[in-house]
Design a protein that fits this description.
This protein is an alpha+beta fold and about 160 residues long. It contains 4 helices and 4 strands, in the order H-E-E-E-E-H-H-H. The chain is elongated, with a radius of gyration of 22 Å. The relative contact order is 0.09.
């Protein structure tokens, strides 16, 4: 396994081919470079079985910066946090209230100007009463529920014929 470095990026081993391929790093387990047939190259980190998080494009980060971010992501996963918690800055750390008052309010004012103010006021009132400020990613878990609560089961009902 080669070390992902600036030298590797300039060499033939990391240039596009007919099919997509990955180059794994020998310094940090789980850190990899994905090369697509279109020529785009991006850094990823694999955590868990088949779970990969995109770090960024090759031009956006140097290999050492990307490796450092990969270490942060792996540390977050090891401690039970979201992979990108505290890494990408304010964009991923919006609380739900900040998201409603900021980007969502802008969207509503553009698409539904007559009811935007009322909708925003209702949403903020609802969510301020229900939940403490948490990052939006807290509400976007794969299970679709908050704080690991059991997912409700759907019961099949039998229809009796008359």
């Amino acid at each position: 396994m080669p070390r992902i470095s600036a030298r590797l990026l300039q060499g033939a081993a990391a240039q596009s081919r007919e099919r997509e391929f990955e180059v794994r790093d020998d310094l940090l387990r789980g850190f990899l470079l994905r090369v697509r047939p279109t020529g785009s190259r991006a850094y990823y980190v694999q955590h868990g079985r088949g779970r990969k998080t995109r770090i960024g494009d090759v031009g956006e980060f140097t290999p050492d910066e990307a490796r450092e971010r990969a270490q942060q992501i792996l540390g977050n996963v090891a401690h039970g946090r979201q992979p990108l918690a505290g890494i990408r800055g304010a964009h991923s750390a919006h609380s739900l209230g900040e998201f409603i008052a900021g980007p969502y309010a802008t969207h509503l004012e553009a698409t539904k100007p007559h009811s935007a103010a009322i909708t925003i006021r209702r949403l903020l009132k609802c969510f301020d009463a229900l939940a403490p400020p948490r990052p939006v990613c807290h509400y976007l878990r794969r299970t679709g529920n908050v704080e690991g609560e059991a997912t409700p089961r759907r019961h099949r009902t039998r229809h009796r014929s008359a």
